[in-house]
Amino acid sequence: MSRPKVPPLAPDRRPLRTAATVAGVTAGSLAATAAVSSVGLAAYLARRALTPDRQRPDDTQILAVDETSVTLDVTPETVVPGRYGLWLDKSSGHVRLGDILDVDEERGRVRREVLGVDSGHLAPGYGRWDQYFYAGPPDRALGMRTEYVDVLTELGTMPAWVIRAPKPSTRWAVLVHGRGARRDEGLRAAKPLHNSGINIIIPSYRNDLGARRGADGRYNLGLSEWRDIEDAALFAVQQGARELLLVGWSMGGAIVLQTLSRSWLADHVSHVVLDAPVIDWTDVLIHHGRLHGIPDPIGGLSRFIMGRRLTRRLAGVHDPVDVAQTNWVAKASELRHRTLIIHSVDDEFVPVGPSQQLAAARPDLVTMEHWDTSRHTKEWNVDPDRWERSVADFVSS
Known about the structure:
Elements: H1 14-50, E1 60-65, E2 69-73, E3 84-88, E4 93-104, E5 109-119, E6 125-130, H2 138-141, E7 147-153, E8 156-163, E9 171-176, H3 190-195, E10 199-203, H4 226-238, E11 243-249, H5 251-262, E12 269-275, H6 281-291, H7 296-307, H8 312-315, E13 338-342, H9 353-361, E14 366-368, H10 379-382, H11 384-396
Parallel strand pairs: 9-10, 9-11, 11-12, 12-13, 13-14
Antiparallel strand pairs: 1-2, 1-6, 2-5, 3-4, 3-6, 4-5, 7-8, 8-10
Helix pairs in contact: 1-7, 4-5, 6-7
InterPro entries: AB_hydrolase_1, AB_hydrolase_fold
Domain AB hydrolase-1: 174-356
GO molecular function: hydrolase activity
C-alpha cells in the first residue's frame, strides 16, 4: 500500500511576523529612548539655568606684571575698552584695571593700566574678569560711610549695606544685582545716587553667597526673589522712606519688574533704572540654547518642565518657574512706572531686542538711550561719566 503523498510545506510566515514584531518593538524602543533622552536633556538644561554658580573658575591668564600695568591673554572681555576689575586667587584678592595700553594680536596678549590693587597679590597666574570695578563693601571700596544691616525676610535675616544720603532724605534706592553676581555689582551706581541726595540700600537675596537658601536652593528667575527685595524696600520705609527708586542689573532687572508687579510697595516707587535687564526670560533662554547648539524644541521642553507643577521636580524646583510671567513685552500695558533702560546693542548674554521692544511699546514711560561696544552689564565700564550722568539726570527729573 502506497503512502499518502504529503504536500510540500507552505512557507513559514512566523519568522517574518517575528521580524516585523521585533522591528516594531525596536522602533518603539528607539522612539522611547529618544523621548527619554530629550526629557533628560531638557531637565538638565532647566537645572543649569536655575542653579547658582557657587564658585566660578579663574580663567583669565595673567602673563606679566609691572608697576603700572598688567599683561593678560586676549579674550573677548580683556580687549574691550573701559575700566574693569580682576579677581585674584579665587576671589580672595582684587585689582582695578583701566585703559588698554597695547595689544599684540600675534602673541595673543593685551596690556592694560593698573589703577589699584584692593587686596591680594597681583602676580603671573590666573584671575577672573569682573565688571564691578569696585570691590565692596562701600566703606572700603568707595570711602562712603556704610551701615551693615540685616533685613528680615520670610526666610530669615539677609545681609545688606546701607549708605545714607549726605543730608536727611526720604528718598531711598534699592540696588538689585543679577544672577550669580554679588552685591558689589551695585557699587557703580552708588556715587550718582548718593550725590543726588538719595539713601541707598544694597541687599542680598535668597541663594546669594552668605545669604539664606531658598526652599529648593535654585534661582526662580525673579518669581520668588522679588519678595526679598520687597523686604529690603520695607526696611527703607521703616527708616523713613517716602519715595523708592529701584535699580536692577540683568536678572536683577527681572526681579525689579516682578516687584513692581506684585508688591504692595510698588505705589511708593517713583523711578526705575534697569541695566541690561532680562525683559523676557524666554528670549534669553532661546538665545543661549542656540549658542550651544540646543534644538529649539528641546529648549521649549526645558521651559515646559520648569514651568509646570507636575514636572517641576525634574528641574529641581519647589514651585513652578513659569517664564511666560517674565515677558514684559507682552505685558507692556501693565507697566506703571517711569523707567530708564541702559542696554548695549553688543550685549552678548542678554539680547537687547526685548528692551528695545518694551521702550517702543511704552514711550510714555520708558526712556532708552543708544549704547554700543559694551558687553553684558558693562555700560558703566565703557563710559562711566555718561552712565552716571544719565542716571543722575533721570532720578532728579
